[in-house]
């Protein structure tokens, strides 16, 4: 499905504030509320809008440690990737997992409450994932930019 400039304006506005009512969104974009409702439904049905969520402050909620972990697997075959991916999907401390082309296989992003949890995560959780041969971890000292909106 192709999207037009109005669809892009809708998507930009919803990225900025997912709680906008159809009426407020219609006014911002310059459409009738009925047309707006139809467009938003179409964007959802087509998969352009995958959900709505609140952006939370991890530090205020006790998840002050942000860590990235490079993971190299024993075997890089499709079966190894599938088993690793399935195990990662079940691990709530891992927030993102990306298959990487380069010197390692996966890049994980995790948020943890403290150094004790970090030590447990690196010493017990990650090594227990299927096929892990080697890891390197990087602890974030300062988040300079955290953005989830796409530049439409």
Automatic annotation (TrEMBL):
Keyword NADP: no
Sections of the chain in a coiled coil: none
Domain HTH asnC-type: 3-64
CDD domains: HTH_ARSR
Alphabetic keyword roster: Activator, DNA-binding, Transcription, Transcription regulation
Name of the protein in its database record: Lrp/AsnC ligand binding domain-containing protein
Organism listed in the record: Roseibium aestuarii
